Amino acid sequence: MALKISPAFSSILASRAGDNNLFPSVSSTSNSVLRLKTGSSPSALVCRAANDKPLTGVVFQPFEEVKKELDLVPTTPNASLARHKFVDDCEAAINEQINVEYNVSYVYHAMYAYFDRDNVALKGLAKFFKESSVEEREHAEKLMEYQNKRGGKVKLQSILMPLSEFDHAEKGDALYGMSLISTFWAIWVEACTFSA
């Protein structure tokens, strides 16, 4: 960081250059900037005022030093600062997976609500589906965090309404509910292997 002194003060500093009791390793240069030397190369810039008089005319220009770095920052308001080598297809696939996770969470939550009813009263299945719903929602949230860290945009779609009744005349409630989940997972695994 450089502090430049106006030319009006260069004569004051030049006359004081020999007086080095406060700054013994200070040298004055022709452009009125004092450089503090350690060893053979200057490591810091110092400016001092004559006596206790306030020093005016000092120009502070911090942006000149970081101008190269500032040129790398995008100026458009919608451009992400974090997006680097993040392909649009990858962003779309992550958004699709976020929506799948939310849909699965919603289905599990509906099954939890069904099995927790007083007339069904399968508390173990209700607990399993509630925990599964929370787990799937956490997956979606982790994917959303990742999408935001990489500079992508999360695009949520509408969630499909799940079934609310899982009673079956032949299979019964529990077997029918678990067979639906088994079928659901088979379809999901097939979709994942097909897209890969």
TrEMBL record:
<dbReference type="InterPro" id="IPR009040">
    <property type="entry name" value="Ferritin-like_diiron"/>
</dbReference>
<comment type="subunit">
    <text>Oligomer of 24 subunits. There are two types of subunits: L (light) chain and H (heavy) chain. The major chain can be light or heavy, depending on the species and tissue type. The functional molecule forms a roughly spherical shell with a diameter of 12 nm and contains a central cavity into which the insoluble mineral iron core is deposited.</text>
</comment>
<keyword id="KW-0560">Oxidoreductase</keyword>
<dbReference type="GO" id="GO:0008198">
    <property type="term" value="F:ferrous iron binding"/>
</dbReference>
<dbReference type="GO" id="GO:0008199">
    <property type="term" value="F:ferric iron binding"/>
</dbReference>
<feature type="domain" description="Ferritin-like diiron">
    <location>
        <begin position="84"/>
        <end position="196"/>
    </location>
</feature>
<feature type="binding site">
    <location>
        <position position="139"/>
    </location>
    <ligand>
        <name>Fe cation</name>
    </ligand>
</feature>
<comment type="function">
    <text>Stores iron in a soluble, non-toxic, readily available form. Important for iron homeostasis. Iron is taken up in the ferrous form and deposited as ferric hydroxides after oxidation.</text>
</comment>
<dbReference type="Pfam" id="PF00210">
    <property type="entry name" value="Ferritin"/>
</dbReference>
<feature type="binding site">
    <location>
        <position position="101"/>
    </location>
    <ligand>
        <name>Fe cation</name>
    </ligand>
</feature>
<dbReference type="InterPro" id="IPR009078">
    <property type="entry name" value="Ferritin-like_SF"/>
</dbReference>
<keyword id="KW-0479">Metal-binding</keyword>
<dbReference type="GO" id="GO:0004322">
    <property type="term" value="F:ferroxidase activity"/>
</dbReference>
<dbReference type="InterPro" id="IPR012347">
    <property type="entry name" value="Ferritin-like"/>
</dbReference>
<dbReference type="InterPro" id="IPR001519">
    <property type="entry name" value="Ferritin"/>
</dbReference>
<comment type="similarity">
    <text>Belongs to the ferritin family.</text>
</comment>
<keyword id="KW-0408">Iron</keyword>
<dbReference type="GO" id="GO:0006879">
    <property type="term" value="P:intracellular iron ion homeostasis"/>
</dbReference>
<feature type="binding site">
    <location>
        <position position="136"/>
    </location>
    <ligand>
        <name>Fe cation</name>
    </ligand>
</feature>
<dbReference type="GO" id="GO:0005737">
    <property type="term" value="C:cytoplasm"/>
</dbReference>
<keyword id="KW-0809">Transit peptide</keyword>
<keyword id="KW-0409">Iron storage</keyword>
<protein>
    <recommendedName>
        <fullName>Ferritin</fullName>
        <ecNumber>1.16.3.1</ecNumber>
    </recommendedName>
</protein>
<dbReference type="InterPro" id="IPR008331">
    <property type="entry name" value="Ferritin_DPS_dom"/>
</dbReference>
<dbReference type="GO" id="GO:0006826">
    <property type="term" value="P:iron ion transport"/>
</dbReference>
<comment type="function">
    <text>Stores iron in a soluble, non-toxic, readily available form. Important for iron homeostasis. Has ferroxidase activity. Iron is taken up in the ferrous form and deposited as ferric hydroxides after oxidation.</text>
</comment>
